[in-house]
Amino acid sequence: MSDQDKQNSDAAAQAAAESEAAPEIPTQEAFAEAAAVHDAAQAHAAAEEAANDAADQGDASRVAELEAEVSNLKDQLLRALAETENLRQRTRREREDTIKYAPMGLVKDLVEVTDNLKRAIDSVPAEAVEGHEQLKNLLTGVQMTDKEILTVFERHNIKQVAAMGEKLDPHSHEALFEVPDPSSPAGTIVQVMQPGYRLHDRLVRPARVGVAVGGPAAAPTPGDNVDTTA
Hints:
The protein has helices at residues 3-21, 28-100, 104-122, 126-129, 133-155; strands at 158-160, 173-180, 189-194, 197-199, 202-205, 207-213. It is α+β, with helices and mostly antiparallel strands. It is 60% helix and 13% strand. The N and C termini lie far apart (140 Å). The chain is rod-shaped and about 185 Å long. Among the domains are: 57-99; 104-213, Roll (Nucleotide Exchange Factor Grpe, Chain A, domain 2). The strands form two sheets. Strands 1-4-5 form a three-stranded antiparallel β-sheet. Strands 2-6-3 form a three-stranded mixed β-sheet, with no helix packed on it.
């Protein structure tokens, strides 16, 4: 090899070495590819974040729906419990009233018996008893029977309706006639034709009475002058 050829070969080798050692300059296509990869990564992250937000909103909506359903069921339960309690109390009252007023029919019949005993007693004049021992004993027996029946009535909460001297009460008395009596307040009961009775607080029979007319106005009872204009 000549000296000239050796120099040319060395120069070529040096150029090749310098070419290999120099850094590669990115091309425009490389920049575009890197930008696309970055944009894709950002879009993927945004999509994941949006999906998470949508999932959170969906969970919140479901929770609100379940809370509303629980509130509705709780309200229905409370209403059902209240209705059950009302039914229980009403049933208890009806059962108590059934037991309490069960003897009503018997009482109505028995008060008729007391009426007959009273009529029998009133039918015997006082002078007829004097000197007539048997009649006297019979009258005494009837009087004792009448008294004993009234005692039994009291024992079982069967009481006579207060009437004589009372102001006429349409809820307790039945006026059969009027009695002119200037000395008694108008509307006052001055005669009792047939006593009335109550079983507990329920009227069995009203007292049948005569009331006074022509006298001064009767004094008002509590509750008669209640102001109803308010």
